[in-house]
Design a protein that fits this description.
Blueprint (H helix, E strand, L loop, with lengths): L1 H30 L7 H11 L3 H15 L1 E2 L26 H12 L1 E2 L1 H14 L4 E8 L13 E8 L2 E5 L1 H5 E3 L5 E3 L10 H4 L3 E3 L21 E2 L1 H5 L2 E5 L4 E4 L4 E8 L2 H6 L17 E4 L8 E7 L6 E6 L2 E10 L2 H4 L2
Parallel strand pairs: 1-2, 11-16, 13-15
Antiparallel strand pairs: 3-4, 3-8, 4-5, 6-7, 9-16, 10-12, 12-14, 15-16
Helix pairs in contact: 1-3, 2-5, 3-5, 4-5
Length: about 325
């Protein structure tokens, strides 16, 4: 009986997996023929053909991976690609930037990661699915020591009341050694388990690891994680240089930040998309403000508290540097 039950369970799992692949194939095949000029018109096609959230999410994902190509011109200066400001280019310019970016991507049928992610979110919005855009560090081979910073954008989507992670950009294809884009759908980046996704996707907002205890990447041993605001404010130096800080409860830690141009930093506005109330939701984190925000160079002091594993240095309430705190036992330190 036990062997029969085991065999039945294994067969059921295999059958369920096969059914899911079959279901995905049907959705993927159907969306191949969808053609629409704007996000809202494409969403109407999706809503007409699919009714459940899992189906809609797959349809949005499948359409993007098969219809949007990666913009390789940014890697080919010899082709005389010139960037010019465009109000539809990025959500960093206009509050309605997600929609503008999505419309531009559909018009040109090319994008980089930000465009892929924002198109996914906008299409989800129109189909009644909850999704968010996530910015952070995407780990790729060949990166040097100076690359541990925000360099990539991806998504989380709520499917049947559960948040899940995906990267539409990396799922769409890859660049070969000549920096030519090869379209090839890769479902390894579709609704990937969080414990697997964290291996090459590290978000600025640790909540979006979807893990109760976000792990420390090896890169922290070289340097702290530098957010996009690190570059917005033109930070040129920081202390300590190592991204891992060891201390015990009650220890006083000192940090410092130097600007390349302090006057310019002070004129730069805060992140318009930041909600500081979200900081309270970040796991095991301490947010440290400078002693004097008006100083040319910033100094920070933090007294270690129990349970804290992450230290985030703030400037104008924007997180600019992220350190990993390793709390050592007091008796271990005294040996």
């Amino acid at each position: 009986m036990k062997m029969w039950l085991t065999g039945f369970v294994l067969f059921s799992c295999f059958a369920a997996s096969a059914q899911q692949r079959l279901s995905f194939s049907s959705i993927d095949w159907k969306t191949q023929s969808f053609d629409a000029p704007t996000p809202d018109s494409l969403a109407r096609l999706i809503n007409t053909n699919f009714s459940t959230t899992p189906e809609k999410v797959r349809a949005v994902y499948s359409w993007i991976t098969s219809h949007i190509a990666y913009n390789t011109n940014i890697f080919k200066p010899w082709e005389k690609y010139h960037y010019s400001p465009d109000p539809m280019d990025t959500a960093a310019v206009w509050p309605s930037g997600d929609e503008m970016t999505a419309r531009k991507v559909m018009r040109k049928r090319t994008a980089v990661c930000d465009g892929y992610a924002r198109l996914f979110k906008v299409l989800c919005d129109y189909t009644g699915v909850e999704a968010v855009v996530i910015q952070g560090y995407g780990r790729v081979s060949g990166q040097g020591d100076g690359k541990f910073r925000t360099n990539h954008t991806w998504n989380a989507v709520k499917v049947d009341s559960v948040w899940q992670l995906l990267d539409v950009t990396w799922a769409s294809g890859y660049l070969n050694y000549a920096d030519d884009y090869i379209s090839l759908q890769n479902d390894s980046y579709y609704l990937t388990p969080p414990e697997q996704f964290i291996n090459d996707h590290y978000p600025e907002d640790l909540r979006w690891t979807l893990l109760p205890a976000p792990p420390m990447l090896a890169e922290f041993k070289r340097m702290p994680f530098r957010s996009k605001n690190f570059y917005r404010y033109g930070i040129g130096g920081y202390f300590p240089g190592n991204g891992v800080v060891e201390a015990t409860v009650g220890d006083t830690l000192r940090f410092s930040v130097q600007f390349k141009d302090a006057a310019r930093a002070k004129q730069t506005g805060t992140d318009p998309f930041l909600d500081t109330a979200d900081y309270a939701l970040w796991p095991r984190s301490a947010f440290v403000k400078p002693l004097d925000e008006k100083a040319a160079n910033l100094s920070y002091i933090y007294t270690v508290e129990p349970g804290v594993e992450w230290i985030h240095l703030l400037y104008k309430d924007d997180a600019v540097l992220h350190y990993r705190l390793k709390q050592a036992e007091i008796n271990a330190r005294s040996k």
